[in-house]
Amino acid sequence: MKIKFVFVCCLLILSSFLYAETSEFSNGPIFENYGINTTVKQTWPIPKQTKFKVVFDISEQSETGKVNQNINSLARFINMHVRSGIKLNDINLALVVHGSALNDFLTQKRYKEKFDTDNNNEELISLLIKQNVQIIVCGQSAAYQKLQNEDFLPEMTVALSAMTAHAVLQQQGYTLNPF
């Protein structure tokens, strides 16, 4: 019984070391302040020569003045895949924005008018744009919320609708990230 107890204790201690080794999360390598991730000992490896074309969808605004974690997911996607050996040029992302999430893509001036604080998403959005991430605003949501194209950060493109953007991106070979 004593040997069994010692064995179980040793297993628990060893597993905590193994867990600690694989759970060291950090930002980078592309986005230094965003996209926390970790290396993983993969048993289902990414096939060599994989090229990603992925579209993300967001419809909910972050807490006022906070970074929207759904936008941060794109930085995490890029960081973790580059960290795991995928070439940055082989990662093409798009983000379709609709609903209340449109507020996170407003210019500083417009955001401050609406919420009396800074739009803390602007830096991350700018960094994503520099990595060729397409950000597409739903024109139907914008019209419903009485937002004009000039209310959005200048890098945004406005589509007829989010549905239209998703249909076109799918025809271009993008797959939808389900979360």
Please give a structural write-up:
With 179 residues, the chain is α/β, with parallel strands linked by helices. The protein has a single domain (2-176), classed as Hypothetical Protein Ychn, Chain: A (3-Layer(aba) Sandwich). 39% of the residues lie in helices and 13% in strands. The protein is built from six helices and five strands. Strands 4-3-2-1-5 form a five-stranded parallel beta sheet, sandwiched between helices. The longest helix is centred in the N-terminal third of the chain and has 21 residues, at 2-22. The protein starts with a helix and ends with a strand. Residues 5-22 have low confidence and may be disordered.
Number of helices: 6
Look at the structure and give the mean pLDDT: 90
Looking at this structure, what is the CATH superfamily? DsrEFH-like
The low-pLDDT segments are 5-22
The geometry reads as globular
Quickly describe the structure.
This protein has 179 residues and is α/β, with parallel strands linked by helices. It contains six helices and five strands.
Question: Which features would summarize this protein structure in a list?
Answer:
179 residues; alpha/beta; Hypothetical Protein Ychn, Chain: A; five-stranded parallel beta sheet; globular
How is this fold's topology laid out?
Layout: H1 2-22, E1 52-58, H2 69-83, E2 91-97, H3 108-115, H4 122-130, E3 134-138, H5 139-144, E4 157-159, H6 162-171, E5 175-176
